[in-house]
Amino acid sequence: MKSAKAVMSTSPIKAELGTTVSQIAKMMKDYELDSILVVDNLSDPKILGIVTDHDIVTKVLANELDPREVKAKDIMSTPLFTMPSDASLREVAQQMGRLGIRRMPILEGGKLRGLVTELDLIREEPGLIKIIRDLEPEEKEDPPDLGGKCESCGIYSARLQLKNGLMLCEDCAELYK
Questions:
Q1: Number of domains into which the chain is organized
Q2: What is the per-residue pLDDT across 111-167, written as a single tens digit (0 to 9) for each?
């Protein structure tokens, strides 16, 4: 079976944290995409998150926020799950299904090398759709707990949780229920 490297798009479109949602939407239109990877800088990018058309609709437009004011860092989906470039297409499909995601950034040597989408997998191996759909969670669950600094109170927690697009400690996460 082929590897992720064989089917990934090798030049995924990227935006920096401070890029406005309005600019991201224009990029999506110009490149006919439904997502943009968010990086710390464009010259030597470290991937930090992803903004999808769904994020724009549910986090900006549905809340009547101004897309010219809202930044990528405010709505990007994190944490971002990645796979190595030598992962088989079956492994990528299984991971995407388990996580309930449609796009998987591909790393090589710790650096972003490409992006595999659900459509890339299905074009190459139509039977992979069954793997993705069979493993897909019925209800999207929060990603696994991670350690780090809470984005609300700033206190380190060994069990951060993703709530409303923020990585929060357990106490702050309770406030967002």
A1: 2
A2: 888 999 988 998 888 888 887 777 655 544 444 445 667 777 777 666 777 776 677
DSSP state of 20: B
Looking at the fold, whether 118 and 95 belong to one and the same domain comes out as: yes
Q: Does 55 lie in the same domain as 109?
A: yes
Tens of pLDDT, residue by residue over 22-43, are 999 999 999 999 999 999 888 8
**Is residue 16 left, alpha or beta, with left meaning phi > 0 and alpha meaning psi from -120 to 50?**
beta
Q: Which amino acid is at 131?
A: I
Residues 78 and 164 in one domain: no
- Is 141 contained in some domain? no
For residue 75, what is the DSSP state? H
| Contact criterion met (CB below 8 Å) for 8 and 116 | yes
- Residue 104's closest CA among 1, 3, 6, 8? 8
Nearest to 165 by CA among 104, 79, 38: 79
Phi, psi of 20 (to 5 degrees): -75, 155
Instruction: Round to whole Å and give the CA distance between 175 and 168.
Output: 10
Runs of H (alpha helix) within 108-169: 118-124, 128-135
Q: How far is CA 25 from CA 12, 31, 61, 83, 136, in A?
A: 15, 10, 12, 26, 27
Which range of residues forms the domain containing residue 167?
Answer: 146-175
To which H or E segment does residue 146 belong? strand 146-149
